[in-house]
Specification:
mainly beta; globular
């Protein structure tokens, strides 16, 4: 349970509803500016099936995105969520993620820690870059040293920029791939991205007020489905699907994540826009 919940939210936030092209141009893509910010989201259960065993969800996620196209981007993320279940009573899931993405050096480093009921369940640490043919080359330090060669994919911040550029051009659907170092950090996921028409928020809509002045600006409704299969069938079910409202600067709000057996909402409660470091 810890893996899919944290993965979905981390992927959509990391500067990051995330993915890649078969032929990547990471440095040029970073002409777009992503806004450094710190956001806090409340997590609640929308609904669940009897099969899932989940009867309630209550949690909070803190997401901080910082840096610039010159110095690279850092993400510090933590989500602590209480899952109520009919059989075991409850489980506390604590997911902590720290990443650094340097577009100029084509470098992505990551550390993820998962705790269940305050006990360490998994720790993964590694470094990735694009090698021959833009394949993702991964060097893992934890849990065990290993080297992995994967298919081409964008790293998180690069994908958010790609998504924003496509949205501005009026694209509504595309397929791409993502590597973000989550789970065991040994696979690339295929994603299908749907971008709705740009729209303006209603004053009393969901978590609009928490976004402050940003909440008065136009946004795109975005939906991303994640697949294990590099070439999913048209009728294949995704691992999960996440929808959210995306602003021009990469800030997102009003998340809804569908795992098939249950759905979770993430609503913005606090947003602090941080200073963008100057490029020397």
């Amino acid at each position: 349970m810890a893996g899919p919940v944290a993965k979905a939210f981390k992927s959509a936030f990391a500067g990051t509803a995330i993915a890649g092209l078969a032929i990547l141009q990471p440095v040029a893509a970073f002409a777009q500016v992503l806004a450094p910010h710190r956001a806090i989201y409340d997590l609640t259960l929308i609904d669940s099936s009897t099969r899932s065993g989940i009867t309630g969800v209550k949690g909070r996620m803190v997401y901080e995105f910082n840096g610039s196209k010159c110095d690279g981007y850092t993400v510090n993320f933590r989500s602590v969520t209480q899952f109520q279940t009919g059989e075991t009573g409850s489980r506390l899931v604590d997911q902590q993620v720290a990443t650094f993405e340097d577009p100029s050096a084509d470098l992505f480093t990551f550390v993820t820690k998962s705790f269940i009921d305050d006990k360490l369940d998994k720790e993964v640490k590694g470094t990735a870059h694009h090698g021959d043919g833009e394949k993702v080359k991964v060097e893992l330090e934890k849990p065990d040293p290993a080297e992995v060669a994967l298919t081409p994919a964008h790293f998180p911040a690069a994908h958010m920029i790609d998504l924003l550029e496509r949205a501005r051009k009026g694209e509504t659907f595309y397929e791409t791939s993502i590597y973000d170092g989550t789970d065991s950090a040994d696979k690339v996921l295929t994603t299908t991205v749907v971008i709705g028409a740009r729209k303006k928020a209603e004053p009393a809509e969901g978590d609009t007020r928490a976004a402050g002045e940003l909440g008065t600006q136009d946004f795109w409704p975005v939906s991303i489905a994640y697949f294990d299969d590099p070439e999913p069938d048209t009728d294949a079910a995704p691992i999960y699907r996440i929808g959210f409202k995306l602003y021009d600067n990469g800030v997102a709000r009003d998340f809804e994540t569908d795992y098939g057996e249950f759905r979770i909402r993430g609503q913005l409660v606090t947003l602090d826009l941080l200073d963008t470091p100057a490029c020397n």
